[in-house]
Amino acid sequence: MIPSKEEALEELRIAEEMNPGPWEKHSLNTGIAARNIAEKIEGMDADKAYIVGVLHDIGRRVGIVDIPTHVYAGYEYCMQKGWDEVARICMTHSYLLMKDEFTYDPETEHERKIKEYVSAIEPDDYDKLIQLCDALAVDYGFVILEKRFVDVTRRYGIMEGYIKGWEVAFAIKEDFEKRMGCSIYDVLPDIGRTTLLTPKPWQPPKK
Question: Tell me: the pLDDT tens digits for 164-205?
Fold first, then answer.
């Protein structure tokens, strides 16, 4: 089950008021990218792609948090709402390697639950689509994958498994492009201009 587009946008608006930041515009752009790609792929629902894209980071409503915390917060919130399809995307969007992300034993309870969840499923087209679009969308528009990977690395540093995750993202891109019959970049508005912009990586405000 998923909410309507109107409900999704209202949820995002409320969440941004709770935790202001560029993540809200990034989420909107993730939804746009997902919709535009899904429209070109037979059998995919563009409205569903848009909604789960808009809400993939809804766990950030709880504040400035790390990846596992916002992933699980989003999952719990959406499950409480009865939006199981969105909850799934909240869980999978940050883990391109899925079960192979967890080459360690998680220390926190919510991360153990994430490991258990993503290890028990195979990613479907919507999981893969949002994983890809999460990498294509920034708050100021859309960028090629290489640009986004550099941006994330500048913010967080190189973590173990990053390069393997990049390889998965490129494989997803190539698969979708074969099915679309064109480049994913052909359907992302103004990507040529925004890819060339070089804003400083966002940092949370100092308290």
Answer: 888 999 999 999 999 999 999 999 999 999 888 877 766 666
- The answer to whether 78 and 87 have CB atoms below 8 angstroms apart is yes
* SS3 sequence of the chain: CCCCHHHHHHHHHHHHHHCCCCHHHHHHHHHHHHHHHHCCCCCCCHHHHHHHHHCCCHHHHHCCCCHHHHHHHHHHHHHHHCCHHHHHHHHHCCCCCHHHHCCCCCCCHHHHHHHHHHHCCCCCHHHHHHHHHHHHEECCEECCHHHHHHHHHHHHCCCCCHHHHHHHHHHHHHHHHHHHCCCHHHHCCCHHHHHCCCCCCCCCCCC
Neighbouring-strand partners of residue 141 = 138
The sign of the dihedral angle between the CA atoms of 89, 161, 136, 73 is positive
Length of the chain: 207
In angstroms, rounded to a whole number, what is the distance separating the alpha carbons of residues 131 and 170? 11
Q: Are 44 and 38 in contact (CB under 8 A)?
A: yes
